[in-house]
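can u do me a favor
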């Protein structure tokens, strides 16, 4: 049976968090009462003139540079004509044949183009199911109309659903790091369409593609791509042909339905926007955008791996969630003794599950306190398990790890105390002692387990093992 290889290209829309809209002075207004942030320009009244938002151009240049694109010395706006109630002018101002940036790269995926445009208004389908065809009424909120957008189009370099998810996470982290967008998929400030085709493995031509529209979470994107690849495979295996069309994936049922076919595809009748001057970035504008770029997540992950010896997975986890990376680096800087890889594990394996999505900088855990805690564990002043108890306290109340260890008597059991506990463990487990003496090494588990329970996890397992063997003369 032929094996098929998926070919995937992504189109991403990013809402910029500028102060005002793309072509007028209305302030951006996520969550404001409907139709309170509008003016004659963004309502498409005749005789009004658009003016390009300089901050949006600046953010667009930052994105183009962060994605390693060539910036066009002179790019222009076009009118993309279509009729829809969320588009009062009857056209969207976008870029067409000369985008702001082209031929870039992020990670292992090439970027085809990056361009500026404006968002449409928002249609709200009111009534029973909230869906267009069954709604009792559809109303328009023009607050969103004219919000600055950057569209990013990748080359079809992605080969699996999982790779698509990973790459989008990197893109999202990058956009977040440079501070140009809230990149919130649920709220729609980051939206993704996936173009998908399959081809016989080893083939160099591309198959017919379909486009999955507007998926609003990483998991849905991965699931949607998987479902569409499976659908195309079964069509080809049955001797059929994939039809070029735009599709909707319903995450609740897993169903894929057609939105429109190629025959119904729009002819947008693009033509140059006569009311706007071209974007011709000056050297000063380019310099300002370049200087505004911080260290990007991909580079940061590489640095963590190379200079600090973190595993690739941990390095990515910290670098792709910038606030975790910042907390980690603060903790590392606050305490020169702590071993980076050990600290990184405590952040990703212990701290993150305790805080969930919250920013650790805003938690009660001070970076310095976590570093100190990790040192106490590394020095075997406290056990691993006592360390976790201390972190519970830090996360709930904050404070100083040494104080917590004292107040709660969490110091490692040792010396006479531990000797006594091992004695008792031996007395309480005569059978295990016999077996152990008889050469059954596994029997030590019962004795060590008993001792660990007695100390409530305050002992070092290796040390207990050693004392048991010593006492039995093994
Ligand atoms: P269209 O003209 O239909 O918009 P484009 O060539 O502009 O197509 O590409 C749109 C997106 O589709 C890009 O992300 C591109 O990488 C992707 N793409 C193009 N051809 C294919 C294909 N055969 N399979 C999967 N993705 C593709
Ligand atoms: Mg396209
Ligand atoms: Zn306006």
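np, heres the sequence
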């Amino acid at each position: 049976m032929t094996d098929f290889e998926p070919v995937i290209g992504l189109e991403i829309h990013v809402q910029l968090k500028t102060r005002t809209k793309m072509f007028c002075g209305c302030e951006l207004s996520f969550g404001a009462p409907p139709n309170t942030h509008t003016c004659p320009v963004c309502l498409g009244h005749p005789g009004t003139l658009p003016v390009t938002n300089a901050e949006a151009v600046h953010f667009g240049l930052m994105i183009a540079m962060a994605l390693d694109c060539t910036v066009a010395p002179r790019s222009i706006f076009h009118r993309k004509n279509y009729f829809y109630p969320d588009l009062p002018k009857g056209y969207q101002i976008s870029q067409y044949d000369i985008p702001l940036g082209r031929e870039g790269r992020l990670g292992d995926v090439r970027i085809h183009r990056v361009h500026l445009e404006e968002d449409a208004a928002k249609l709200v389908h009111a009534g029973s199911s909230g869906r267009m065809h069954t709604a009792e009424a559809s109303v328009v909120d023009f607050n969103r109309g004219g919000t600055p957008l950057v569209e990013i189009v990748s080359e079809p370099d992605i080969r699996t659903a999982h790779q698509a998810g990973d790459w989008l996470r990197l893109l999202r982290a990058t956009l977040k790091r440079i501070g140009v967008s809230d990149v919130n998929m649920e709220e729609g400030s980051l939206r993704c369409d996936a173009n998908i085709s399959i081809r016989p493995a080893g083939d160099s031509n591309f198959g017919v593609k379909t486009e999955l529209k507007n998926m609003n979470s990483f998991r849905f994107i991965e699931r949607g791509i998987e479902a569409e690849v499976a659908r195309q495979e079964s069509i080809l295996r049955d001797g059929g042909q994939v039809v070029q069309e735009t599709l909707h994936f319903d995450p609740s049922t897993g169903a894929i339905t057609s939105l429109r076919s190629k025959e119904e595809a729009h002819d947008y009748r693009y033509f140059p926007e006569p009311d706007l001057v071209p974007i011709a970035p000056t050297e000063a504008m380019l310099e300002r955008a370049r200087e505004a770029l911080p260290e990007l997540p991909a580079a940061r992950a590489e640095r963590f791996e190379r200079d600090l010896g973190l595993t690739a997975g941990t390095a990515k986890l910290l670098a792709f969630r910038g606030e975790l990376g910042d907390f980690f680096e603060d903790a590392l800087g606050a305490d020169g003794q702590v071993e980076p890889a050990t600290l990184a594990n405590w952040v990703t394996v212990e701290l993150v599950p305790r805080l969930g999505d919250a920013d650790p900088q805003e938690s009660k855990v001070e970076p310095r306190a976590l570093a100190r805690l990790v040192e106490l564990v590394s020095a075997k002043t406290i056990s691993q398990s006592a360390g976790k108890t201390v972190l519970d306290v830090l996360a709930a109340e904050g404070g100083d790890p040494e104080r917590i260890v004292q107040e709660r008597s969490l110091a490692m059991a040792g010396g006479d105390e531990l000797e006594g506990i091992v004695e008792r463990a031996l007395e309480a487990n005569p059978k295990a002692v016999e077996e152990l003496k008889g050469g059954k090494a596994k029997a030590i588990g019962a004795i060590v387990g008993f001792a660990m329970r007695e100390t409530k996890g305050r002992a070092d397992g290796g040390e207990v093992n050693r004392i048991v063997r010593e006492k039995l003369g093994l």
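The mean pLDDT is 92. hope that helps!!
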